[in-house]
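Marked as duplicate of an earlier ticket. Keeping the data here for the record.
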Amino acid sequence: MSVAPYSSVDPALYPHGIPAGSGTSAMSWSAILAGAVGAIAITLTLLALGSAFGLASISPWPGLGAKASTFAIGTGIWLIVTQWVSALTGGYLAGRLRTRWTGLHTDEVFFRDTAHGFLTWATATFILAIVAVVAGALMDSAAPDTTVVVTREAADAARKVGAAFAGFTALSLILGAFIASAAGAVGGRLRDMHP
């Protein structure tokens, strides 16, 4: 029993064979980078807006403004919303801006569009992570204030807020990857509906 090589195509899926120009890349990196730039711009804009809301809700005076736990939950929700909106925008842009593929099965087109959305999210996340690491390194290089005394209760409260913040960040990243992938598929489908 002979097995068909991987380079041959199923005639049921591709009745006319593969077109002559099929040797091009499956990825449109210009569309992915454009989507990533759009996602980063939306992220920075929404983070600035969230900072304005957060600074308006807290007070330097004891007993006034939002409690730390309320502030952490609000921050987490805002991060999730920011991730949703920026991932949706970036993935959709990548799907709509890619070049049209001809002669491919609809499942392959769907996969490529989904991959464009995912890679847009991954590229934007990678760039923002680099910026965050560099900013953290620059802040650590400043001389620490040694006059601050930290109590055990304050350290425990900071640990709890940090754990909640990390959980919200992870959840927003997972949801962002899914939303960007789905938005890339929707954007690519709409791209193929218009010549």
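See parent ticket for discussion. The chain has a mean pLDDT of 80.
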